[in-house]
Amino acid sequence: MSVELRRLGIRDLDAVEVIERASYPTPWSRSMFAAELRKPSALAIGAYLETGELVGYAFVSRYVDAWHVMNVAVAPEFRRQGIATELLEQLFDVTAEDRRRGYTLEVRVSNTNAIRLYEQLGFESRGIRRGYYTDNREDALIMWRESAQSEKAS
User: Is position 118 annotated as part of the catalytic site?
Assistant: First the structure.
């Protein structure tokens, strides 16, 4: 599937909310997304069809030692077509010059499809956050990926 990847803006929040609600049992609020978009240390990329329809997004925030993948979602009818992979690879490309930081994320231990995707992109399991998710107290798998630059140096 061919999509155009570009930065998200406030104007995209209506579409982001629709995808978010269809993707997660406890979706982020509009204000959470707006706060991420305003942060100078954050980057948000959307995947758009030729028609301009947003079909997926990824948010990442820069911290002292890592880029934290905050949220990734693809509209249900467009899943399993490589869109999440494209979004994450674009984030890795845009942040590749930041040699000091790797990438981290949390994912529900039950979300085997997402875990498989992250493993294919070079993430490894680094631990468990017990009771991390507030809706059902499910544990989160903590995953880590070295930066592209540090991988090349090894």
Answer: yes
